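Predict the 3D structure for this chain.
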Amino acid sequence: MKKIIFVIAALLVFTFSLAIFFNPFSAPSDKKTVEVFIVPREFGEAIVIEDLKEKGFIKSFWVMNFVLTLKGKHDKISSGAYYLSKNMNVFEVADKITGPPDLKWFSFAEGIRKEQIGERLKVTFNWSDEELDRWNNIYTAMKYDYVEGVYFPDTYLIPAEEDGLDIAKRMIINFNEKAGPYIEGFAQKDILWTTGVKIASLIQREAAGKDDMKLISGVIWNRLLKGQRLQIDATIQYAKGKVDDKWWSVVTPADIRNTDSLYNTYKHNGLPPHPIANPGLDAIEAALNPQETDCFYYLHDRLQNIHCSKTYEEHLENIEKYLN
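Done. Predicted structure below.
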């Protein structure tokens, strides 16, 4: 009898041990190493759960699905990245990935100015007005050559607790990496990289698309080399700043006459003091490799097709033909 009881007890212990070991709710491992788990910007919940299983953060797809149902947290996963470890059980993982992400996605397109970037950062990272002011006037103004144009347009995954100064540094590092070959190209042509980025920013704001960029670059270089004023409306827009809660407002003849700024390229020769936006690689490449052209003027018609001309008289004819 004692032998039978011993066997039954051993079986119970063995069964209990197996249940503990294979428990689909338990942590997959005792390793405490913290890893970054990324949820893409565009995702489906089922794909995220499957990815958690494949990466070893949970034991069972169906158990995680059950736990999310139990907690009422279906469709509560946010894009971003989360610090997870494989010693977390399924309940802890569920709570983590349905909470605030540890890293947040942030992206912006080519051609916007740093203040616009700052406004978007404020929304994404819940900045105060004071932090936004520091972004505009301190973090992005510490070095003369880094006031504008070097906050590279891209998609970033940024720690939620990172401050504006570190975010500015992150974007500058990205600019140095991505634009590095073009910076070297400017140096080989004895062109200051700051000059190249200024021209790229003008191209970025003036072009209707990538196909226009090298022609516009050729016109800008023609004017600069001849000593002719650039007379680019986008520089007036930059000088005006935000008007009626809008950036890049329409330029009027009165703006051209009354805007007292070194960015007014109708009144001042040469390039503006700094870039007027943050250009992408296409614009930087166009600044480095302009199209050879005899044109000194250009305009876009109502369908955004570009037309260039050699003389001001021809330019006036194009205005009459394509705009009036």
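The first strand starts at residue 34 and ends at 39.
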